[in-house]
From TrEMBL, chain A:
GO BP: transmembrane transport
The family this protein is said to belong to: Belongs to the binding-protein-dependent transport system permease family.
SUPFAM superfamilies with a match to the protein in the record: MetI-like (SSF161098)
Transmembrane segments: 63-84, 128-151, 163-182, 242-260, 296-317
Organism: Streptomyces yokosukanensis
Protein name: Peptide ABC transporter permease
Gene3D superfamilies: MetI-like
Automatic annotation (TrEMBL), chain B:
UniProt topology in membrane: Peripheral membrane protein
Domain ABC transporter: 5-254
PROSITE patterns attached to this UniProt entry: ABC_TRANSPORTER_1 (PS00211), ABC_TRANSPORTER_2 (PS50893)
Protein known as: Methionine ABC transporter ATP-binding protein
SMART domains linked to this entry: AAA
NCBIfam families on file: oligo_HPY
Lineage: Bacteria, Bacillati, Actinomycetota, Actinomycetes, Kitasatosporales
TrEMBL record, chain C:
Residue stretches making up the ABC transporter domain: 9-261
Keywords tagged on the record: ATP-binding, Nucleotide-binding, Transport
Name recorded for this polypeptide: Peptide ABC transporter ATP-binding protein
GO molecular function terms noted in the UniProt entry: ATP binding; ATP hydrolysis activity
Protein's GO biological process: peptide transport; transmembrane transport
Coiled coil: none
Amino acid sequence: MPEQPHEPEGAIAGTGMGAAMDLGVSEAETLEGTAGGPGGTGPAGRPHSLWSDAWRDLRRNPVFIVSALVIVFLVFISLWPAAIASGSPLKCDLAKAQDGAGPGAPFGYDGQGCNVYTRTVYGARTSVTVGVLATLGVAVVGSVLGALAGYFGGVWDSVLSRITDIFFAIPVVLGGLVLLSVVTSNTVWPVIGFMVLLGWPQISRIARGSVITVKQNDYVQAARALGASDSRILLRHIAPNAVAPVIVVATIALGTYIALEATLSYLGVGLKPPSVSWGIDISAASPYVRNAPHALLWPSGALALTVLAFIMLGDAVRDALDPKLR
Amino acid sequence: MLLEVRDLQVEFRTRDGVAHAVNGVSYRVDAGETLAVLGESGSGKSVTAQAVMGILDMPPGRITGGEILFQGQDLLRLKEEERRRIRGAGMAMIFQDALSALNPVISVGDQLGEMFVVHRGMSKKDARAKAVELMERVRIPAAAQRVRDYPHQFSGGMRQRIMIAMALALEPALVIADEPTTALDVTVQAQVMDLLAELQREYRMGLILITHDLGVVADVADRIAVMYAGKIVESAPVHDIYKAPAHPYTRGLLDSIPRLDQKGQELYAIKGLPPNLTDIPPGCSFHPRCPMAQDVCRTGEPPLYEVSEVRGSACHFWRECLHDRDQ
Amino acid sequence: MTATSEPILEVDGLVKHYPLTQGVLFRKQVGAVKAVDGVDFTLHRGETLGIVGESGCGKSTVAKMLCNLERPTAGSIRFKGEDITRLSGRALKAVRRNIQMVFQDPYTSLNPRMTVGDIVGEPYDIHPEVAPRGDRRRRVQELLDVVGLNPEYINRYPHQFSGGQRQRIGIARGLALRPEIIVADEPVSALDVSVQAQVINLLDRLQSEFELSYVFIAHDLSIVRHISDRVGVMYLGRIVEIGRDAEIYDHPTHPYTQALLSAVPVPDPEAREHRERIILTGDVPSPTDIPSGCRFRTRCWKAQERCAREVPALAVPAAFRDVSGPAAHDSACHFAAEGQMAAARDEDGNGPG
């Protein structure tokens, strides 16, 4: 569709100057564009769907390949940490405290004499668990609430939107300090629960907007004219077409949840020892960073790399799923 | 001569391969003349115009050949800076969708005035006065008050008038109007076309009218170039073409308009679909849809045969086509 | 195709006002968009009623109410005598089977994530009583064949088709439940000129094949004339003139219809010099603020004081009440009269476009 990809919509585009003459003010369709007609597309043309197009883009995107490899590796070590690290992360020998690299401990030892390499490897499990589960929870709660509000509209929509606004006003770290400090359980669950509690409005807002956009398509009207039930319309017609932005935002958010877990653990309200978490290790290593920088460096590096990998993956997915960038 | 396009070729790289959007288009426009470029979506009519204006998105577009002579200068050889000076002052464009072509957060007066500030170096105050004058020219009621209004405060027809005012602000020698009235209602469409035609006469501009509407063409054009699959298949003075088209595609378009004496009968319909531009049929690109196609059409690409001094048709059987109509 | 049979659909006093509200939680109504403001018409079995009008005249809203996609604010829509605006649940679902819609934009009216087979077969999922499960695939393929598509395309996705083909898919979906009425809202306006004729021919053929009644909504006057038995002209939420196609096109008596017809570009360059055109001034008033009396008076060259006071009724105007002839049809104008152009058009026997 050669006439279609970038229909210039400028004012007197000729002048090419000043905001008033800005090209591409909107994506409005012109007759020659998408609304117009078959153009050069015969029945054989463009046999792709959004997903297969996206997948094709992703496979060729080096950012995606690198971040996906990192993530696959992370998932692997969080499932089978023993495969690459021998010994227990809790087996520490104070005699070796702050020692540098040694046999079986390529990253050296931390202030408690624990093997930094082993702890960093085992810490991945916490990060990946928190990241994945919090994202799943947020995505499920957020998209269900957002989709219902967007689809049914009216009072529920207004109420939900206001609640969303309130949640957006809560500072995440402060909220974590307050809420999690009363929790005694030393598992990942309170942390995940807290993230879902504060995270869903972000997704619900995206899902709501996406559903409202999709709802306006004629195929939704067509289904309604056939007498389709609300649940059929939502599940079969709206959800598959509205899910892409949610996936994008959720993937990017996954990275930030991992960072948030580390932050909360660092502040002492997330996981606490004897749990193994990069946040705990960073917290523990920071007082003697001058003497043993390696104890801080490795968990921080692993954390940064993990967060970066997920955010880059989200970015790549967004580029691939956003038809406007094509 | 004002503008001459010679053998222009434009292609687009797409994920499905190279789309040949414009394949050797030549046309000319004189001062004071209206050339209608008629075609369906994908015919290359807009791409040609964008190449002339120099607003083609490159990439994915690429001009692979040809010349665009504007007042004797080949635009394709000019530097971007020089072309920019020609745009607006030498040639201007009117778009279909005035709402998206105007900036929603700047008042129309400022948008009109900016032309004068940028190109003529006028002061803001003088530019504002000019803007009011222009709005009066395109007959926007109460222009002096409305000059401060924003685009959304105007109706569709009024916005298209503002677009026209903007295009004509610097009195360009050539105006390209891309489906200027397609988005408008019939009664408003008539107002806007009339205004455009009148201003064109007044300024003696060359006008290229890009459209798919055979009715609009018949109303205002002097000459028509019919495009199909990136080529001009017929080019003729407007009266000749409606009387007796010399290309089966043109004939098909004219015949598919519902007419009173055919009520209750089937409409004539051109069979099939416009071709995929990444895979244009060999020979005459219209042959798979053509009722007159012979073997030669499948292999030999027809040149633009000279039907008369002012007329051309890219059909091997243009004589038969003309003849059919006479009977 | 003349329809003298019993009415299948009677629309009476149909109104749709969309409230304009202010405030977030405590909404208060500050006005209303009067999209449809009192529309009456009847549709007979086997007939095509064309509805023309410019954007914003409410014609699409009428279509939506006919298909129960919008609830009317007031008025009734009787299908075979039963008011469908008051139905709900099972009874509504049953009526829906009989009134189906064909949409304007073939690019947004088909779910891009569903195959053609799923799209055309969905009506059977929703109304399982119509076709036994094992029979559906065959029926879907039959439908594709009927609308001129290769039945083997059943597993393809909409984006693999061109606009015209997609519109055929939409029509096949509309036919699946064997409806008696099809409401077509601008079914060809998004298509290329050369493809429009194909779709119009298809609709024409299907009408006789399936004994359908059409409500055909469009802004293209020549296409409406080609396909319609009767035509209603809408302006600002009301029908201002309605009658048989020849009555409306050759003997319009409402000034708006006259202006509308004269503004249509005629594909004949010979006509442009000696053609009488009425160019209306100004724009259509906002549907939130409809003029008093006759709603067309703000743009009408015939308007007088009476027009601001009295709402003209949609009836045969007094001037034509005693004559029989094509000019004697319903027209909502106090000063209804045939224009000169009507006479001129009679001579060459050719309507606009």
